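Checked the freezer inventory, then went back to the computational side. Two predictions to log before the end of the day. The first one is the construct we discussed on Monday; recording sequence and tokens without edits.
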Amino acid sequence: MQAGDVAILYAAVWQAIFGVAEVIGDPENDPSRERWAWRFPIRADVVVSDLRDAPAVEAAGIFPQSLWRHSHIRLSQEQFECARALISASGSLRGEFD
């Protein structure tokens, strides 16, 4: 991931996709962390206002097994566009978020 990339946000426990965000900075590594040592700043473009309304990850053709044990995966263009459309249709909020 690098600045300018666009990402679909995923809630692991819910197994749902809930937002579209842009990566706005370089990846940072925190070597003191054993798990999830890499992170990067994002700016949310669209988010689902309530996770109960978030589309299941499978609805975008993404299977939860592909997400286990990974902080992120690369989506095909088709998966990304489907996910973005599902999120946008889910009563989402748009704009700047803290």
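The second is the one RB wanted added to the comparison set:
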Amino acid sequence: MFGYAANFTVYTMAMIGLICFAMFVYKKFFLNANFNNKSQFLGIEESISLAPRKNLHVIRAGKEKFLIACDVDKTTLISKLNENSTKKELTEELPVIVDFQKKNVLKDMVKKINEI
């Protein structure tokens, strides 16, 4: 009985070792060949995280660059960037967020009530 258990253990460990070795060889030689071919055409030049799961990326496609915004649900093209643009020109090209003047709504309501 002891001989049967010892033989079973030895053969099982040998098969597990053979499977692990086969997986190592497969990962080393076959998977890396597919993933090491980095594209010379497409690439991420710069990236910045705005919030969790919200990012801005500068993407290079050939000789052109694009500014895109990525969110969980969608990816949006913001603008195409010129190759010779300076930082000042880039900020002038982007839309400006306008701050609304803060109004004291409560004072305006009190004035209107007093006028009545």
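For RB: The longest helix spans residues 2-35. The two ends are 105 Å apart (CA to CA). Let me know if you want it refolded.
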